[in-house]
Design a protein that fits this description.
The complex is a heterodimer of chains A (378) and B (288).
Chain A lengths: L11 E10 L2 E11 L4 E5 L6 H9 L6 E6 L2 E2 L10 E4 L11 H10 L7 H14 L15 H13 L5 E5 L7 H18 L2 E6 L2 H7 L2 E6 L2 E6 L1 H6 L4 H6 L4 E11 L2 E6 L4 E6 L11 E6 L5 E3 L5 H4 L5 E10 L3 E8 L3 E8 H7 L7 E5 L6 E4 L2
Parallel strand pairs in A: 3-8, 3-9, 6-7, 7-8, 13-20
Antiparallel strand pairs in A: 1-2, 1-4, 4-5, 9-10, 11-12, 11-14, 12-13, 14-20, 15-19, 16-17, 16-19, 17-18
Helix pairs in contact in A: 2-3, 2-4, 3-4
Chain B lengths: L1 H36 L17 H4 L5 H32 L2 H12 L6 H12 L4 H7 L11 H25 L3 H9 L4 H12 L1 H16 L3 H6 L7 H11 L3 H29 L10
Helix pairs in contact in B: 1-13, 3-7, 3-10, 3-12, 7-10, 8-9, 10-13, 12-13
The chains are: A alpha+beta (378), B mainly alpha (288).
Chain lengths: 378, 288
């Protein structure tokens, strides 16, 4: 092959990119490839290096070491205004002295040669239509609601057809319901325009619902990256399991390793059979590890229920300490004698079969062995 | 309910009373007195005798030069001060390292700690025969005369009024959201174009405030032309000093003063309207 196939070149590549501010390492030798047309998310708590990673792509920061490539070309030394990427800023950063149409058309007016007025007008109208703000061109920025401002920011970043669209916590300022709507809209939009989206968020629900692939970061490093399902079902360690969704952790020690089944002896004395969370053979007998079980995979029933009645492999007696009604499901906090407090999420239909439980009521909970994961403590 | 509302009204009136009375006595009354005097006649020994005549206003062309000087040098001085102040304010607000910022700001104010009169006198020596002209002779430029020229007056104006212009511009640049500059950069705007399209328009409020402050004060200026103009560059302020204190022609002085107030009112209201249009309905903009 003389020319590299388009689809083989990832849109963005980090090659051992490191960013230091004095003694603080914000991004620590990051290596990562983001494919063309992918919806990719950086997920992590504040200070984990996700925003710095995004700013390295945008060009607001230059790597102290290593390289950042866009479309196969090294971007070191290239200023932001010469990069083929555009960004949606956290608080939108819309220009207050321009109306909606002028904000959206800003990127086109910077091109040289500058496109003719009619051409700019046409593209602005098209882009406003794309984000469902067709009639809003003449409006002033502060006349718009938060959701509308969000769309203007989106239109402004999309109008130049960047190869990559960067989104820095784009939905953080919106209320919950609007956020859900915008998540769906963003996803649809990404499919329609076919541009690579790179999202930075601390909201796991946002990352899970929109992304093709997520990279979870901590202290400037990647902890785990994969599809939302991989991260949810096969978290590499406690940090990921805790960050993506909710999870119960029962501490213990690895007792036996037997192929695809790992037995962990809990500190409470009981032996739990778990699935490994990685393909790698990293489990050593005697190491401390946790049994991780997602609350929605735990079954709850009346006291004295046996495994058969619960439909599980494990049965643990407990008492309801707290009960939160959440509409489509109920959250129970069950205190157990040997394993501490265990969170159980019980869907509405189970309640319709087994009835609901009240505070201070004795219950039995349990789960199937293959739903429990053995996580090493890191 | 009615009593609550009337209580509130009384409270408002009560709280506004001191400032209203102050305003009336200190601002409106003197203006009315001046206006009344301007229609009177000069008493034989100087001062004022009551009368009603437009004679003083008919005499105004006698001071045409002072009006001309003020109406050319005040705008010119304002524009030059703006041109010098903007880069300085920009450096202080945007470029200066944050640990130096406060020290540099204090340096801008330091001249205020010395009397205006003394600072202006100092310029007599800088611009006078043994100052800059001598330095210019060293590099071969001869016969330059600065002191007692309009140039000297304008140089003095820029020097004295610089801090008044720097601060409002500094404030508007300082509060400028830096993310807007990043956004412009991200959308393909080079740093220079970003300055022209984002920074400059968003600092208009600061420039407007600074220009307003400097211009209004310049219209009444008399010290700088008196000292650096050496009686050759005459402002309206100098004419007023002369008329009231030297020739004691109070009615004519009052007529000149009233005319100045009217000219200012016209200029300021046109200016305000213009600024209003520039900042049309912008919530981030205040006129002053």
């Amino acid at each position: 092959m003389t020319s590299p196939a388009q689809t083989d070149t990832p849109d963005i590549r980090f090659e051992n990119a490191t960013k230091r501010y004095g003694d603080v390492v914000a991004v620590d030798s990051l290596s990562l490839a983001i494919d063309k047309g992918e919806f990719f998310s950086f997920l992590g708590p504040s200070g984990c290096g996700k925003t710095t990673s995004l700013r390295l792509i945008a060009g607001f920061e230059q790597p102290t070491e290593g390289d950042v490539l866009i479309g196969g070309a090294s971007m070191v030394g290239t200023p932001p205004h010469k990069r083929p990427v555009n960004m949606v800023f956290q608080h939108y950063a819309l220009f207050p002295h321009m109306n909606v149409a002028d904000n959206v058309g800003y990127g086109l007016r910077q091109l040289s040669p500058r496109p003719p007025k009619s051409e700019i007008q046409k593209r602005v109208d098209e882009t406003l239509e794309l984000v469902q703000l067709a009639e809003y061109g003449k409006r002033r920025i502060w006349e718009l609601s938060g959701g509308q401002q969000q769309r203007v920011a989106l239109a402004r970043a999309l109008i130049c057809r960047p190869t990559v669209l960067l989104l820095d916590e784009p939905l953080a300022a919106l209320d919950r319901k609007l956020r859900r709507e915008m998540q769906i809209e963003l996803q649809t939009l990404q499919r329609d325009v076919g541009i690579t989206f790179v999202l930075v968020t601390h909201d796991q629900e946002e990352a899970l619902s929109m992304s093709d692939r997520i990279c979870i970061m901590r202290d400037g490093r990647i902890v785990q990256s994969g599809t939302p399902r991989e991260l949810y079902d096969r978290p590499l360690n406690r940090y990921v399991a805790d960050f993506v969704g909710k999870s119960n952790f029962i501490p213990g020690k690895i007792a036996t390793v037997n192929g695809r089944s790992i037995d962990i002896e809990s500190d409470g004395g009981m032996l739990f059979s778990c699935n490994p969370s990685t393909e790698q053979d990293t489990y050593t007998v005697g190491d401390s590890a946790s049994i991780a079980v997602r609350p929605e995979l735990i079954s709850i029933g009346p006291p004295g229920s046996n495994a058969e009645a619960l439909g599980t492999d494990v049965v643990i007696p407990g008492r309801i300490q707290n009960r939160i009604f959440l509409g489509e499901h109920t959250e129970y906090l069950v205190s157990t004698e040997k394993y501490g407090e265990i969170l159980v999420l019980s869907p509405k239909y189970i309640e319709s079969v087994r009835g609901s439980f009240e505070r201070d009521e004795d219950v039995a909970i349990g789960w199937k062995n293959e739903t429990a994961l053995a996580l090493e403590d890191t | 309910m009615a009593t609550e509302a009337s209580k509130g009204r009384w409270l408002t009136a009560g709280l506004l009373a001191p400032s209203s009375i102050w305003f009336l006595i200190m601002l409106v009354m003197p203006l009315v007195v001046v206006a009344i005097f301007s229609f009177g006649e000069r008493a034989p020994a100087g001062g004022y005798t009551a009368s009603f005549t437009f004679e003083q206003y008919a005499n105004l062309p006698a001071r045409l030069k002072a009006f001309q000087n003020t109406l050319t040098l005040a705008p010119l001085g304002t524009v030059l001060t703006l041109l010098v102040a903007y880069p300085l304010a920009y450096y202080l607000a945007v470029k200066a390292p944050s640990r130096w910022k406060l020290a540099l700001l204090v340096l801008v104010i330091v001249p205020f700690w010395t009397s205006l009169l003394i600072r202006t006198y100092a310029w007599i020596f800088i611009l006078g025969g043994r100052g800059i002209p001598t330095l210019l002779e060293f590099i071969g430029i001869e016969g330059v005369r600065l002191i007692n020229t309009p140039t000297a007056v304008v140089i003095g104006i820029v020097y004295i009024y610089l801090p008044l212009m720097v601060f409002p511009i500094f404030v508007s640049l300082e509060k400028l959201d830096k993310r807007l500059l990043e956004a412009s950069n991200d959308l393909g705007g080079s740093p220079f174009r970003t300055f022209l399209q984002i920074t400059l328009p968003l600092s208009i409020p600061g420039m407007a405030t600074g220009c307003m402050l400097v211009f209004i004060l310049l219209m009444g200026e008399f010290l700088i032309p008196a000292i650096l103009g050496g009686g050759k560059v005459f402002f309206i302020g100098n004419a007023l000093v002369d008329l009231f204190l030297q020739s004691r022609n109070w009615p004519f002085g009052a007529a000149v003063a009233t005319t100045l107030v009217i000219i200012m009112l016209v200029i300021v209201s046109i200016y305000m309207r213009l600024m209003m249009r520039v900042s049309a309905h912008r919530e981030d903009v205040s006129i002053m």
